[in-house]
Amino acid sequence: MTAVIFDGRAFAKEKEDKLVKLLERLPRKPKLVAILVGGSPESELYLKLKQRMAERLGIDFEFKKFPDEKPQKIVGFINQKNADTEVNGIIVELPLPAGFQVLDAIKPSKDVDCLTGENLRLLAEGKPRFIPPTVKAVFDILLKATQVEKLGDLKDKKICVVGDRGMVGGPLVSVLRNSGLEVSGANTGTQDLIATTRSADILISATGIGRLIKKEMVKPGAVVIDVGIEKKRNLGVAGDVDFENVKEIASFITPVPGGVGPVTVVCLMENLIGSVYH
């Protein structure tokens, strides 16, 4: 068996084309403010990807970089943008320096990344204002996989999320369970992790540990969605999944890069446009 390899860039383009039509109905173009703290080249590159998509869609994008500032100054800037009625969304690129508590300064109605405590609480309660873009991307890819592989009703499938306590995995488990799906959470400390992952019809990994998920951990014919990414000197960019070996037994698999990442960016823009409609 050789897996269907998901093309995240093509799928993102399909979604982007639909957004163009939605934007045409708006009385004015939305505005997104993006904040970068520090000088991480990886974070800046990822923000540039968001900026380029915003520009393609005709979304007003403001990029503010704080090279080495105190949290109070960043909170002050966020408060200015909270009060600005022309601004529809505010994002702070992660990771933040240690001790920077600025995310809850974002007005929840403008928190299109869904990182504030209030929005995460609403998400856990099944009453989301926004769904985190990466979580939404995984869910949309999962729906795509059901079409490609003719999986039938997802409620009949066992889903395992590895990294269930993380920033992506925790909200993802909440969204899947609130959708009525059977989900088991796991992490690197789970006893007999191999047996847990191998029992899953759908395996989602979001740990950020390169090539954690080996071939022997995957049920033959499973759908495998790789959310993690890690840079190593000897491996280069690696996802959570040992892609070359796992693709031999999975039915559907997402690569890294080019899988979940491009879809996450367009899901952020969907949240932004949704904030205008709401």
TrEMBL record:
Report one GO cellular component.
cytosol
Which amino acid positions bind NADP(+), per UniProt? 229
Query: Which residue intervals define the domain Tetrahydrofolate dehydrogenase/cyclohydrolase catalytic in the entry?
Result: 7-113
Q: In which pathway does it act?
A: One-carbon metabolism; tetrahydrofolate interconversion
Q: Which GO terms describe its biological process?
A: L-histidine biosynthetic process; methionine biosynthetic process; purine nucleotide biosynthetic process; tetrahydrofolate interconversion
MF terms (GO), sorted A to Z? methenyltetrahydrofolate cyclohydrolase activity; methylenetetrahydrofolate dehydrogenase (NADP+) activity
Question: Which branch of life, at top level?
Answer: Bacteria
- List the keywords (alphabetical): Amino-acid biosynthesis, Histidine biosynthesis, Hydrolase, Methionine biosynthesis, Multifunctional enzyme, NADP, One-carbon metabolism, Oxidoreductase, Purine biosynthesis
For this protein, what reaction is catalysed?
(6R)-5,10-methylene-5,6,7,8-tetrahydrofolate + NADP(+) = (6R)-5,10-methenyltetrahydrofolate + NADPH; (6R)-5,10-methenyltetrahydrofolate + H2O = (6R)-10-formyltetrahydrofolate + H(+)
Query: Which residue range or ranges hold the Tetrahydrofolate dehydrogenase/cyclohydrolase NAD(P)-binding domain?
Result: 133-274
Q: In the UniProt record, does the keyword Amino-acid biosynthesis occur? A: yes
Q: Which family does it belong to?
A: Belongs to the tetrahydrofolate dehydrogenase/cyclohydrolase family.
Role of this protein: Catalyzes the oxidation of 5,10-methylenetetrahydrofolate to 5,10-methenyltetrahydrofolate and then the hydrolysis of 5,10-methenyltetrahydrofolate to 10-formyltetrahydrofolate.
Protein name, per record: Bifunctional protein FolD
